[in-house]
Please model this.
Amino acid sequence: MPDTNLPFDPTRLKFGIGQPVPRQEDPKLLQGQGRYTDDVALPGQLYAWVFRSPYAHAKVLSLDVSAAREAPGVQAVITAEDLADYGAMTCAMPLKNADGSPLRTTHRPALASDRLRFVGDPIAVVVAETRAQARDASELIMLDVDMLPAVTEASAAAAPDAPLLYDDIPGNSVLDFAFGDAAKVAEAFAAAAHVQKLSIRNSRIVVAAMEPRSAIGEYDANEGRFILHVGCQGVFGLRNQLADDILKLPREKVRVLTGNVGGSFGMKANAYPEYLPLLHAAKQLGRPVKWTDDRSGAFQSDQHGRDHEVVAELALDAEGRFLAVRLTSYANMGAYLSTVAPLMGTGNFVKNVQSNYTMPLIEVRTKSLLTNTTPVSAYRGAGRPEGNYFMERLIEEAAREMGKDAVAIRRLNHIRPDQFPYAAPTGSVYDGGEFSAILEDALRAADHANFETRRAESKARGKLRGIGVGNFLECTAPPMKEQGGIRFEKDGTVTIITGTLDYGQGHWSAFAQVLHQKLGVPFEAIRLKQGDSDELVAGGGTGGSKSLMASGAAIVEASALVVEKGRVAAAHVLETAPADIEFEWGRFVVAGTDRAIGIMELAEKLRESHSLPSEVPSSLDVTHVFDQAPQAYPNGCHVCELEVDPDTGHVTFLNYVAVNDFGVIVNPLLVAGQAHGGIVQGIGQALHERVAYSEEGQLLSASFMDYGLPRADDLPAFQLSSREVPCTTNPLGAKGCGEAGCAGSLPAVMNALVEALRPVGVNHLDMPATPEVIWRAIHKV
Model:
């Protein structure tokens, strides 16, 4: 064990806040030693296969599983009838319609029975000795249906003659959301010198996480307790959803365990219908039941992202000052309402469309519609990138039509440093930022001033060159309580216990850096416990770019509690009063003397002591819950430069600059990685990823043969820099960074593309702007 009685060593700061410490997880993961759900093998486990609907919309006439039950190796076939006593999955978001009535939710059973509502809807689960036996047996299931007409677009679902998915949800409408003073907004538009209007499609996305969904259900008959091994974004919240809503059991009767998670981006945040039949079968059969989806099933059944049809409008005065913005949208919910599905096109549009500009008035009107498609849920940013995208496209088109410079309009409307704290009409209060300075940094780094020279060079080669600016500001997830437990172990390690969950972000290193700096414990001795609901008393999970602000703050506060306990304990060991004890970089020191004890040694002494006075703590362990911090406002500016080949529609990236304000950066290496990933996902949505349904509701882009993802050779090198303005509303001064890459890249890429195409008469394109789409726009085909 390192001797923490040694004097302060400045080299220890290499693991402190602000240092680019490599991810602790990487050596294990790169050597194939990660433990994902499909790697878990329990004694006696059985295997499940899900029989899904091949139809988008149909009434079930009969379901015959008798032949499947008699197939080799089959132990059970679970249908809706077997699960009748359990609860359904619903959306409980406290959103209201414009008339004040509550949101209409769907009550989704784990397995469909009388009605099938999308291709991929689970109908039965076959459980057998092997996965192959379960899959083979599923092909023996006989399903007889009466086909019904399908609808796949939200706007079409709102039509008076659209097929209805539910008899008790008129017009397929679950929510008619309205925000803002419509009358005042209308007045502002009437008085405007210029009104810019754009119809914009926020295209649907398949999440395509590296790790397909997988789960193992267990039942402990002695304790009457269900155990679910599953990849998720937070075991505490998922445990509560399973216990409260689905299993209808006390929470202590449900345990959720999560190991490594191969990506999620919002998709694995909540319960899925497959989990209940696995748990039920495990109880019925007395053996664990394992299920791992294949990629085709994932395309069909993993919740999709985005999918909004938006009319965006911006009112400006003669100088280009913003008077009001208005969004009128159709939001596609898919066939069932997921836990957070209505949030993206409602509250997150409201909070984020303003970006980093002064905006006197905002109106958002969104109709959320059910369709015969895969349910939609959060996807990286969940309405935040889209809000910024709408605003940046409006600015570019307003500038073009008004004969003004788009950059100058941005400068004119930026919130100035002397306006903070800035109370937005959305209810947000921005605590600080240097928006115009960041814009100037980005333009300078991108050599924006000399773009026309480069454009002329491209034109001489027969290419179309464009440069695009993407300003952004996003509101992080709402405040939540978060656990920050600290436990000193017998083996000399220190465990951080957190309710957030790392599914690719690298929490272990960042959290360890915070603890190392606050307590001076050896960085290499710090471990992270995050995937066991039994260890938690609170936990908001990971999502909305809030983990460091929540867990980091919890660790800061828990560290202070450790120090307070340590002062009392050290006073006892060093035979002095607690008031005489000072804490200096991992050492409790008697003030004015050289008498001291290291924090690790003190923890060991307390462990080994069998008779301590009542006022002396028996350990330095702390179980602490951070109450909550307000939302933060990461922001920045991306500048993208690209070239289009008019003969093929192919896009080549030439330069990409991003200047970001993420507040205090704990680990620059991890932040750069998060920015890279978000930018690439934005590029994917902008240029590559297209979800396509047939008129009958069949998913046409159901594999990687049909669905495009950006590859390494499609991407530019990224030039990243930071302009840190510490957040004032959380102890670390952090602002979050996980989703900002998408928020900047969507507008930067699409603005650059449109700028490249303006000389050939193209002023707007919707995502995804694939080579075919671009070629057709150029050639007016």
The first strand starts at residue 46 and ends at 52. The radius of gyration is 28 Å. Residues 367 and 381 are 20 Å apart (CA to CA).
